[in-house]
Structures are given as C-alpha cells and as structure tokens.
C-alpha cells in the first residue's frame, strides 16, 4: 500500500489505515447516542458491562486509544463486587478520575452520559445483552460468539439492524493487517479453485478449569439470578460462575470459543455464506474433571463449493496450522489462532514421477516490509477497537465485524455444538434461518 506521494507506508501506518482511522478534526458531528449529540471533538463516553478477565483486557486497550479517539471510561458494571472495585481502581489510574461503578447492567444502560458499551459477559448472555444495549440507544462492542442460542442471536441482530447504532463484534482477526494481506492473496486467484480448508488448533492443558476466583466469590457479593440471565434458576455454583465454558447449558466450549474465530476467518477469506451442513464428533478424552463439554473436538463443515475441517485437542500441543487448499497453490498459516505467519506453497500436482520436485514457497508480507520471512508482530494490535471508534466518529455503521458477520459465525458454532450433542449431521435452511435434520428442498 502506498500513500499519495508514492512513499512506502510503515507497518504502524498500514495498521491504522486498515482500521479505518480518521482524523477527528475532519469529522462532522454525529449522534453518538439517542440521549445526546456530540461534535467531532467531543469525548466518547464508554461503559463496560462484564469486566472480568476479557473485559479487563478491553478496558486496557481502550485506555491506550484514549488520546487518539478522545474516549474515556465513565462507567463500569460487574455483578461481582471484586471485579467492579478492581475496574474502578484501574479506570482511575487510566483516566485520572473514578468512574461510576454499578452492579447491574440496567443501571449502566440507563445512564444518559454513556455513549458506547463494551459487552464482555459470559457467552450465554452476549445476545440478550447486545439487544438490551442497542435498545437503550448505546453503540456496542460485543465479544464473540455473538450468541449460542439461534433465536437470541436473531433477535440481537434484528435489534441492531433496526437501530442507527455502530456495533462491532469481537472477532478481531478481521481487522488485523496480516489477515487482510492473506485474503488479498486469495482474491488474486493465486490458489485456483479451493476445495478444502483445514484448521487444526491444539493446546495441552485443562482449558478453562482451575480459576482462582472460584474460591473467592461469595453469593452475597454477586447477583446469581441476574447472572443466569435467560437460563432456569438453579443453586449458586461458584465453579459454573467462572468456568461456564465447561458446561453445556451455558457454552459449547471449543466451538463457542475457538471455532468461532476459525470459522469466522473462513467466512472472511472465502465468502460470507452460511454452511450447508455440519457434522461434529469428540469427547472428554484428556481431562476427566467433570467437564460437560469436550476437550477433543472435530467438525466437518460443508459450504457450496468447498469443505472445512476444524479440529482442536486440549490433550496435546502438536503444531497448529490452517491450510486453504486450491488447485494451483495452498495458503498455509503456521501457528494457532491469529498467527501472522502465512505463506503460499505452489501446487505442482502429482509427484510420483519425480518425487524430488520442490514446491515454490513465499511468505505473505505487509506492504512496506523489506525483510524476507514471516510477518513479525511486536506491538499489541489495536486495529479492531480502532475501527469501532473510527466508525462511531464517522457515523459509518459498517464496522469490520458486523452483526451479519456475527450471525454467520454463530450459526456455524451453534450447528457444530448441536451436531455433537445430537450425534448426527445437521443442515441449515438459509431461507427460513433454521437448523434442520435434513437438507432443505430449495
């Protein structure tokens, strides 16, 4: 990528450009919330709903962009007293003054001086909370998956599309410049017709088990019924509260957390099309610790013109990779989720006649890079959040990860989870937006 005077752009400039960063002085006034109209140089007031581990990360990232986009956290909300108090202290450190700290989301959403809200609650509440947030007239950054109950995901999507609000779904790889560079390789046709897309992401450890907060929380320091959200009442369970990704009523675990990123990249690279069918398998083979969700999982996802194979094991840290396989070449990613190490390997066909033939390889690089070899990312990538802030400033509702994008990844992971639990292949009826036991006729 080159600028107007034909000079090469460095990596940081490229990142800012792909994030849609715009200068504040050149932006017209925009409605940042239903409650008040802000000019181009006015502060965007942020609120955080759910500010535990992931929410704290978003909190820190926002503070790193406070000067560039003139944003400030003015309110924090968490059901658990410890998270709420810690977030209030960090906000004071980041911005020089204390935020309003409230326990319940409705309290924060009722604040007229809050323009935009981060949603980093447990995933069973993502869709209901996103719906409530936009109905309260707030812009939203919602963590992935966008939801894990199909009707709730639809309701959230429809509420956003009826609004005039800017919503970013937290599939941040869509904003990363190295993923954009890899996608450009696909768009050149260098791979030829793609028939298979493989994803293997591994980890060796009892993922999502052993949170120290389990021993710290007391029922009187939180609101259990509010935490349950749309789920039936049950006795307070501190392990479920913090390790919810292991329990099937609240999360599917690997599909919700890891496959959501992987399949979203499939949509981003290939096309924004829902899967035709999915069949999944797996089980608890490595960590027999009363988890309900599998620690070993595999899904085959059928699209109109290619097949996706997704696989994760938590019992072995064997090399992770992704491969987009075409008739002319393969686009290979070395590493797990979000790795910037992409290379193109030319396809030479059947090598039986001459097994010594070597495939030509070349690394995917960013514009402006002069050193050969894989992309090396040093600083934390803030491009996804930058894109959200920039869209709020410009009034552009088309963020890098829209609710339509979020809906598609949610459909895929919901189907994968249901296929695993039901033990059968499932089909998607895109016209009715329903998951079926048999292929639709149309």
Short description:
It is built from 13 helices and 19 strands. With 442 residues, the protein is α/β, with parallel strands linked by helices.
CATH architecture assignment of the largest domain: 2-Layer Sandwich
Count the strands? 19
Strand content: 15-25%
Coarse structural class: alpha/beta
Low-confidence stretches: 1-36
What is the count of structural domains?
A: 2
Computed over alpha carbons, the radius of gyration is: 22 Å
Helix content: 25-40%
CATH level 1 class label of the largest domain: Alpha Beta
Mean pLDDT rating:
90
- The number of helices is 13
CATH domain fold name of the largest domain:
Dihydrodipicolinate Reductase, domain 2
Question: Could you describe the 3D structure shown?
Answer:
The protein has about 450 residues and is α/β, with parallel strands linked by helices. The protein has 2 domains: about 10-175 and about 385-405, 3-Layer(aba) Sandwich (Rossmann fold), CATH 3.40.50.720; about 175-375 and about 405-435, 2-Layer Sandwich (Dihydrodipicolinate Reductase, domain 2). Helix content is about 30%, strand content about 20%. It contains 13 helices and 19 strands. The chain has helices at about 10-20, 55-65, 65-70, 80-95, 105-110, 125-135, 150-160, 175-185, 225-230, 240, 255-270, 385-395, 405-420, and strands at about 30, 35-40, 45-50, 70-75, 100, 115-120, 140, 165-170, 195-205, 275-285, 295-300, 305-315, 315, 320-325, 330-335, 340-345, 360-365, 425-430, 435. Strands 9, 10, 11, 12, 13, 14, 15, 16, 17, 18 and 19 form an 11-stranded mixed sheet that branches. It has a 6-stranded parallel sheet with strand order 5-4-3-6-7-8, sandwiched between helices. It has a two-stranded antiparallel sheet with strand order 1-2. Strand 18 (about 425-430) and strand 19 form a beta hairpin. Helix 2 (about 55-65) packs parallel to helix 4 (about 80-95), helix 6 runs parallel beside helix 7 (about 150-160) and helix 7 packs antiparallel against helix 13 (about 405-420). The chain is globular. The chain starts with 10 loop residues before the first helix and ends in a 6-residue tail after the last strand. The model is unreliable at about 1-35 (pLDDT under 50).
């Amino acid at each position: 990528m080159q600028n107007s005077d034909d000079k090469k752009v460095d990596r940081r400039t490229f990142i800012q450009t792909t994030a849609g960063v715009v200068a504040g002085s050149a932006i017209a006034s925009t409605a940042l919330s239903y409650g008040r109209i802000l000019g181009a140089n006015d502060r965007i007031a942020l609120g955080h709903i759910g500010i535990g581990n992931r929410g704290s990360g978003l909190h820190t990232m926002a503070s790193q962009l406070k000067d560039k986009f003139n944003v400030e956290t003015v309110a924090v909300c968490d059901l658990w007293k410890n998270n709420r108090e810690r977030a209030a202290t960090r906000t004071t450190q980041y911005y020089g003054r204390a935020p309003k700290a409230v326990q319940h989301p409705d309290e924060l959403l009722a604040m007229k001086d809050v323009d935009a809200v981060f949603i980093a609650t447990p995933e069973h509440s993502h869709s209901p909370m996103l719906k409530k947030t936009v109905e309260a007239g707030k812009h939203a950054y919602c963590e992935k998956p966008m939801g894990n109950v199909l009707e709730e995901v639809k309701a959230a999507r429809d509420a956003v599309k009826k609004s005039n609000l800017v919503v970013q779904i937290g599939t941040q790889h869509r904003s990363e410049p190295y993923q954009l560079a890899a996608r450009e390789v696909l768009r050149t046709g260098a791979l030829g017709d793609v028939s298979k897309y493989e994803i293997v992401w591994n980890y060796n450890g009892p993922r999502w088990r052993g949170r120290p907060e389990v021993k710290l929380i007391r029922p009187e320091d939180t609101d259990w019924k509010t935490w349950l959200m749309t789920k039936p009442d049950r006795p307070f369970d501190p392990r479920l509260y913090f390790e919810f990704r292991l329990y099937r009523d609240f999360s599917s675990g690997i599909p919700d957390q890891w496959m959501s990123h992987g399949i979203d990249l499939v949509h981003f690279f290939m096309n924004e099309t829902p899967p035709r069918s999915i069949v999944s398998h797996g089980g608890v083979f490595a960590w027999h610790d009363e988890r309900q969700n599998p620690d070993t999982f595999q899904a085959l996802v059928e699209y109109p013109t290619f097949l996706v194979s997704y696989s994760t094991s938590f019992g072995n840290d064997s090399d992770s990779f992704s491969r987009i396989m075409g008739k002319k070449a393969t686009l290979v990613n070395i590493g797990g989720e979000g790795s910037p190490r992409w290379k193109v390997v030319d396809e030479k066909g059947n090598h039986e006649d001459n097994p010594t033939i070597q495939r030509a390889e070349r690394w995917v690089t960013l514009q402006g890079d002069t050193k050969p070899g894989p992309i090396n990312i040093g600083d934390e990538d803030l491009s996804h959040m930058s894109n959200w802030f920039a869209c709020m400033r410009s009034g552009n509702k088309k963020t890098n990860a829209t609710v339509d994008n979020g809906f598609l990844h949610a459909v895929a992971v919901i189907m994968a989870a249901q296929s695993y639990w039901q033990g059968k292949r499932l089909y998607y009826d895109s016209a009715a937006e329903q998951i079926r036991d048999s292929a639709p006729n149309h």
